[in-house]
Amino acid sequence: MYHLGRVLYLQGKVKDAEALIKDSIQILEIYMNSSNLTDAVNTRRKILHTMEVSKGWDSLETVIAAEKLALILVSAGGQGNLMEAKQLLQSCLDSRTKILPDDNIQVAANMLHMARVELLLCNQTRGNISESTAVIDNAKHLLGNAIRIARQALDKLIKQGANNKSHQLSKTDAYTERTSLLILLQALNALSQLEVTKTELHEPAEKETPSYSEAEKALLDCISAFKQYAIQRSLYNFGDIKGEYVTCLKHLSALLSKSNSNGLKQSSSRRPSLQEVLNEIKRLEGVSSSVSNKKP
Fold this sequence. Notes:
Radius of gyration: 21 Å
Helix content: over 70%
Shape: globular
Mean pLDDT: 85
Order of helices and strands: HHHHHHHHHHH
Structural class: mainly alpha
Number of strands: 0
Low-confidence stretches: none
Distance between the termini: 35 Å
């Protein structure tokens, strides 16, 4: 259905093509939602093979097909699937850096996906500290670059909007701005989880309390980014943005609970109290719930 849709699109039959492609996507989603990942993987493999033959790896369509296969493999789990996903995502990154500018937000998203796979692989190699450390270091490097690119994209778009007389961005730029902020928040959240994993990997000597200061710092940066970009640019009401922010707050509340129970001192002047974080979570989830319960 997908391939037929592509043929119809090339023939100029856009509406018929769109209907077929949407149906093919829905079937894939059904496979995934019903945990029928084997069929989803096989379908994605066929799509990727066709794109490789017809377009080659110099096409973003091939890259996107490979990335979608990689993400389904991640969902399927297992070291073999994760290793294949890692290789596919590396090929995607290699192609994107050739096709797109180095600071394109797609490059940052690709790096974020790769870092998440590395963290999953790390959980399977904890018996080998040196191997796990290497995986963590690579993931941290990827996240650092993803965060840098996302910040640069946001700052560039904010400046662009400020220079515009109407202070408005085009639909494409507005979408890029929202995507960049989401990637920034996700990368900072992932960085925090990486720092927790790193701390727990190198367990301290007996009677010593593990410090999660680096993990806290990443989450505080996540909160600052939300305030700086989401509130300034009125992006805070988007469900994905707000959801990622709430996830950040929940991670922070868990770390603060550990710190409080261990009697640790405040690690940063920016650090809110546990009660402040819990109140903010309650407020945001209450707002989200009341909005979703409203009748149309």
